[in-house]
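Weekly structure sync, notes
Attendees: PL (lead), two postdocs, one rotation student
Agenda item 3: pending single-chain targets
PL asked that the sequence for the first pending target be pasted directly into the notes so everyone works from the same version. It is reproduced below exactly as submitted, 71 residues in total.
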Amino acid sequence: MNSADMATNLIFRAKNLQEFTVITELPDDFAFRGVIPFDMQITGNILEAKVWAIDFDEAVYRLNEFLQNTD
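Predicted structure, written out during the meeting:
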């Protein structure tokens, strides 16, 4: 990937990012450590996060990656 492709990809992402609400069950071993990159609300064992992504699948992926790396 050359610099022109990288710039094109960056501009595409900047123009097309959307905020998605992803709702999931809170993992049993979840603990707040470090920076939380999303707006999050936890009610009981339900976690609701607002995630910026190109599409819903990417939003789910980004939240899952964050949750898996908090232990």
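Discussion points:
- The chain has one domain: 18-68.
- Residues 18-68 form one domain.
Action: rotation student to compare against the earlier draft before next sync.
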